[in-house]
Design goal:
The chain is of the alpha+beta class. The protein contains 1 helix and 4 strands; from the N terminus they run H-E-E-E-E.
Length: about 80
């Protein structure tokens, strides 16, 4: 997976970043999971790469995406 070296901010830039990573033509499996007591998603790539995704929200808007791709932190995600 591509990773941003610096935080990506602003709705348009975040949308374009995620579209480039997870957009059309990408064969991914997405599964709803509970992460630290909150709703989240487990994203699995065909090459077996796994990524955990959670969102932060306030005022009815998404304020942050949190993505973890470190395999050592995702041992539970089989």
């Amino acid at each position: 997976m591509k990773a941003a070296r610096n935080p990506v901010t602003g709705a348009d830039r975040v949308a374009r970043f995620f579209a480039g990573i997870y957009g059309p033509g990408r064969r991914l499996t997405v599964r709803r999971v509970e992460l630290n007591g909150q709703p989240g998603a487990l994203i699995v790539r065909p090459d077996a790469g796994r990524y955990a995704l959670t969102l932060a929200a306030a005022g009815g808007r998404i304020t942050a995406f949190h993505v973890v791709g470190n395999p050592d932190k995702l041992r539970w995600a089989n």
